[in-house]
Automatic annotation (TrEMBL):
One of its GO terms (biological process) is ribosome biogenesis. This is GTP-binding protein EngA. CDD domains: EngA2. It comes from the Bacteria. The keyword Nucleotide-binding applies. InterPro entries: G_ENGA, GTP-bd, P-loop_NTPase, Small_GTP-bd. Keywords: GTP-binding, Nucleotide-binding, Repeat, Ribosome biogenesis. One of its GO terms (molecular function) is GTP binding. NCBIfam families: small_GTP (TIGR00231). Belongs to the TRAFAC class TrmE-Era-EngA-EngB-Septin-like GTPase superfamily. EngA (Der) GTPase family. Residues 1-118 form the EngA-type G domain. Gene3D superfamilies: P-loop containing nucleotide triphosphate hydrolases (3.40.50.300). Pfam families: MMR_HSR1. The gene is engA_3.
Length: 118
């Protein structure tokens, strides 16, 4: 989970080892939480690729509001949540807000700093 265009779908594709999710430079490409079963070393997992979450005040579109609700519901379905942060932009207030939501959910957390070399 993370803000729009921090690389959540690209990271999911890398973990899967294939281009399963559409990736585009325009924010809002992922509109719904996508549940993807995978197997690694004989164990089964489900990855959930989520829509980017912007600040509440910047969300005006009904579809985007629905996307945010689905993203927050995906946290409840997860055992571990990866919060993806864009290294070029640093940690934003929105990242901290998402971090607080994840911590309050009681889920395990992995912080991913992406676009380090971009």
């Amino acid at each position: 989970m993370g803000r729009p265009n921090v690389g959540k779908s690209t990271l999911t594709n890398r973990i899967l080892g294939e281009e399963r999710i559409v990736v585009y430079d325009m924010p809002g490409t992922t509109r719904d939480s996508i549940y993807i079963p995978m197997e690694r070393d004989g164990r089964e997992y489900v990855l959930i690729d989520t829509a980017g979450v912007r600040k509440r005040g910047k969300i005006t579109d009904a579809v985007e509001k629905f996307s945010v609700i689905k993203t927050l519901q995906a946290i409840e379905d997860a055992n571990v949540v990866m919060l993806v942060i864009d290294a070029r932009e640093g940690i934003s207030d929105q990242d901290l807000s998402l971090l607080g939501f994840i911590l309050n959910s009681g889920r395990s957390l992995v912080i991913v700093v992406n676009k380090w070399m971009a």
